[in-house]
Amino acid sequence: MSDISVKKINKLIEQFEQAGNKTQALEIGYKTYAMLMSDQKFADKVTKSAENAEERLYKKIKIKLIPEKHHFKIK
Prior knowledge:
The protein is of the alpha+beta class. The protein has one domain. Helices cover 36% and strands 27% of the residues. It is built from three helices and five strands, in the order αβααββββ. It has helices at 6-18, 30-37, 40-45; strands at residues 25-29, 46-48, 56-58, 61-66, 72-74.
């Protein structure tokens, strides 16, 4: 999924939650994550977790990096 954008992520999260689901994590491939981090809008909203310094959060949703290059999934 190399055509992902911050706008698309926000829309997907909104649709996921409107369907009655609670967003627990975002699974993001390492290349997709690097591309997203180059977008200042995304990078500004990524924070470190207070519980674990190695964990990253996007709008208080855990980011799980996976070894697949281009991947994005909401869990």
